[in-house]
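Let us work through a complete example step by step.
Step 1: write down the sequence.
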Amino acid sequence: MCDPENREGVAILVAAPQNSAKTVRVNITMPEDVLEQVDRYAESHGYNRSGLLTQAAKRMMEMEAA
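Step 2: predict the structure and record it as tokens.
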């Protein structure tokens, strides 16, 4: 804060987002009725199909790691 105009300023640290991993397209197989349930749940909770399945997989892996 050497600049006289910034003497009243406050320095803060802001977490920078981590480099996102490359997104990769995958194909999976599941029963049609389950896919319909996934899509309904995703839509009603503000996710798309990929986002919901990604979050579900992450949570499952976190639970098993604990």
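Step 3: interpret the result. The two ends are 44 Å apart (CA to CA).
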